[in-house]
Design a protein that fits this description.
It is built from eleven helices and 14 strands. The protein has 372 residues and is an alpha+beta fold. The chain has one domain: B-lactam Antibiotic, Isopenicillin N Synthase, Chain (Jelly Rolls), CATH 2.60.120. The strands form three sheets. The protein has an eight-stranded mixed beta sheet with strand order 1-2-10-7-12-5-4-3. Its cofactor is Fe cation.
């Protein structure tokens, strides 16, 4: 399909606008948002424009909140000398902010830089090469696409993604695009080890043995998502990523220098997560909030579209995703008491992911569906 033609048809007039047809045109181009930008669009297609009610209330952000609500930076090098202090810092962040950044986490800065560069390089490949990986097939382990919830969402996000399921079954390197193959495998090894460390700290923060969360398979599988946010000609009319919380146990995010990630604070203001050189952003996922019986918070966050760019980020989701498992997840028994009864019912990962994906990024937490 002619991407330039698709881009023009997607803008459409009110008389001719057929949303489904225009979603299909965008999808079938297999060129993503990058393809629209390359075609020279100066107005964003209508499928990306936020509805008036979202535009009206969606962009209140504040740097004034920072005295009450800041994103903690935790130095993991201190574990050896002051483990209890690090556990305490992790506990406070997980219970109040739901987000924190880690430094001295063991992953070399060169690996971080190479990972971001490779992510950008993949998304800037010629469309004919990227198109080979384009898919909406649920079980496909390596797929490139734009908006997993394209047909469910109220408006599309200005973002393309390469999605790679790295575990629990090891991914064969040949399944990854050559341009990002080696560094993705190396980054996967590094971030998996960091995940184990973080799950130990989070277990202790809940008053449990260090191996408790790992024993529940929280660190057993992970997926790596290479996100690409091209510069947007009308950034104020859309989003890079709609407000949402993550459908996993834990997320580790590598972001570049551009910024745009925001967290929803306790007083409903959006607060920036500033890029910190060499740091990785960590946030609690929905499943860990469910398992901790609301002790830990899976906080809503979003990414702004930007005139600058491209913005590149690499997210690691700790989840078994669609790997078949009979394990059920509910509030951890050791945390429950008469004073702290279960807030959620048990669920399988398959049911949780299925509900989340079918719902799409609609601004509502999936957790409400699993409350008792």
């Amino acid at each position: 399909m002619d991407v330039a033609g698709a881009g023009k048809s997607l803008v459409g007039s009110s008389k001719t606008y057929d949303r489904l047809q225009e979603l299909k045109a965008f999808d079938e181009s297999k060129a993503g948002v990058k393809g629209l930008v390359d075609s020279g669009v100066t107005e964003i297609p209508r499928i990306f424009i936020m509805p008036p009610e979202d535009l009206a209330g969606g962009n209140t952000s504040s740097s004034g909140d920072l005295t009450q609500f800041t994103i903690p930076v935790i130095d993991l090098q201190k574990i050896a000398k002051d483990r209890s202090g690090v556990v305490s810092a992790v506990r406070e962040a997980a219970e109040t902010v739901g987000f924190f950044q880690v430094v001295n986490h063991g992953t070399p800065v060169t690996v971080l830089e190479d990972m971001l560069a490779a992510a950008r390089e993949f998304h800037e490949l010629p469309q004919v090469m990227k198109g080979e990986y384009y898919s909406r097939e649920m079980m496909k382990k390596v797929k490139y696409g734009s908006n997993f919830d394209l047909y469910q969402s109220k408006y599309a996000n200005w973002r393309d993604t390469l999605f790679c399921v790295m575990g629990p079954q090891p991914l064969h390197p040949q399944q990854l695009p050559r341009v990002c193959r080696d560094v993705t495998m190396e980054y996967s090894r590094q971030v998996k080890e960091l995940g184990r460390v973080l799950f130990e700290l989070l277990s202790e923060a809940l008053g449990l043995n260090p191996d408790h969360l790992e024993g529940m398979d929280c660190a057993k599988g992970h997926s790596i998502l290479l996100h690409y946010y091209p510069p947007c000609p009308q950034a104020e009319l859309t989003m890079g990523t709609t407000r949402h919380s993550d459908p996993d146990f834990l997320t580790i995010l590598l972001q570049d220098h551009i910024g745009g990630l925001q967290v929803l604070s306790h007083n409903s203001r959006w607060v920036d997560v500033p890029p910190v050189l060499g740091a990785l952003v960590v946030n609690i996922g929905d499943l860990l909030q469910l398992m901790s019986n609301d002790k830990f918070k899976s906080v809503e966050h979003r990414v702004l579209a930007n005139h600058a760019g491209p913005r590149v980020s690499v997210a690691c989701f700790f989840t078994l995703h669609l790997h078949p498992t009979t394990k059920m997840y509910g509030p951890i028994k050791e945390l429950l008491s008469e004073d702290n009864p279960p807030v959620y019912r048990e669920t399988s990962l398959k049911d949780f992911i299925s509900y989340y994906d079918n719902k799409g990024l609609d601004g509502n937490s999936a957790l409400a569906h699993f409350m008792l």
